[in-house]
# Entry
Amino acid sequence: MPVHRSTLIRPLVIIAVVAASSLSAIAQQPPTPSRVRGSIEAVDGDMLAVKSRSGEDYKLRVSGDTKVVGITKISLADIKVGSFIGTTTVPGPDGGANAIEVHVFPEDMRGTGEGSRPFDLRPNSTMTNATVAESVVGNDGHTLLVKYKDGEKKVVVSPDTPVVTYVPADKSELKAGAKIIAFFKKLPDGSFEANRISVGLNGLTPPM
# Structure
């Protein structure tokens, strides 16, 4: 008895539809975040209970490989020509780039993430890591011309823009009440382990 071609094709079509539906469902699932900005609520051994700025709760494990760096405030005058900086900017009313924070990298971090890319700190914000080529002081602050390997950008830094830098720190700074930015990975058992934690010193909230 001959087997109709449609009889063979129908199961293949069903399998294809099911597979496509499964892939679509996976694609629509929100990605697991890899960074959290927030406050340490409690410390239990090597586990940190962290509440994000938007209210979510995280449990992060601190391992022997977790790198901890401090964030401390500096002045706008500490940004010099030749400084390697990172700055989060948003479009200004005149179409320029207004800084909402600037962080100055120490020399051993020069070149970190060089370039300009969309950022998630605020809607329409951009992160630019680059070298300061020019600094012009005006009545409203500084205008910085920063250059990176693929281009350049003029950034307006007002007097009230937070300016910070990285300094050495250790895990003793990871205590309840500290404000942090933690980068983490998801382990096979579903838990989260911190790779790197930037912690604000002396009550500072890291602005980036």
Observations:
- The first helix runs from residue 5 to 28.
